[in-house]
Amino acid sequence: QVQLVESGGGLVQPGGSLNLSCEASGFTLDLYAIGWFRQAPGKGREEVSCINNSGHRYYSDAVKDRFTITRDNRDKWYLQMNNLKPEDTGVYYCQAAGGFEYWGQGTQVTVSS
C-alpha cells in the first residue's frame, strides 16, 4: 500500500521553528521528485519547496532563506522551517512525483502569538 505520512506540525510563535518529516512506503522513491506544498485557509495549494531528480532544490520566494528541504538516502524527507511568520500558517502536504503522483494527508502548521 502506497503511503506518505507527514509529521512535525504544530503551533509555534512567530520567529520559531518547526521540522516537518515525510516518510514514504509501498513504492520505490528512486527517480521521484519530492517536495512540500501548503494550503492556507481560503487559498489554493501552493508549492513551497522541492528536490527534483537531478538533486536541484527549489524554494518559493515566500520561504527562501528561511526553509530548507533535505532528504535521506532512503524514503524520508524533511522541511526545516525557521523564522516562521503568521503567513506560513496552513496545512502542509508532502508530495512525490514521478511515474505517479502521491500525496500525504497533510499536517497543520499554525504560527501565532
Structure in words:
The chain has 113 residues and is mainly beta. It is built from no helices and eleven strands. The protein has strands at 3-7, 10-12, 18-25, 33-39, 45-51, 57-59, 67-71, 76-81, 90-97, 101-103, 107-111. Strands 2, 4, 5, 6, 9, 10 and 11 form a seven-stranded mixed sheet that branches. The protein has a four-stranded antiparallel sheet with strand order 1-3-8-7, with no helix packed on it. Strand 5 (45-51) and strand 6 (57-59) form a beta hairpin. The N and C termini lie far apart (40 Å).
Overall form: globular
Helices, by number, come to 0
Query: What series of H and E elements makes up the topology?
Result: EEEEEEEEEEE
Structural class given helices, strands, pairing? mainly beta
Largest sheet features: 7 strands, mixed
- Determine the mean pLDDT: 95
Strand percentage lies at over 45%
Distance between the termini: 40 Å
Rg result: 13 Å
Number of β-strand runs: 11
Helix content: under 10%
The poorly predicted ranges are: none
Features:
single chain; 113 residues; mainly beta; seven-stranded mixed β-sheet; four-stranded antiparallel β-sheet; 53% strand
List the helices and strands and how they pair.
Blueprint: E1 3-7, E2 10-12, E3 18-25, E4 33-39, E5 45-51, E6 57-59, E7 67-71, E8 76-81, E9 90-97, E10 101-103, E11 107-111
Parallel strand pairs: 2-11
Antiparallel strand pairs: 1-3, 3-8, 4-5, 4-9, 5-6, 7-8, 9-10, 9-11
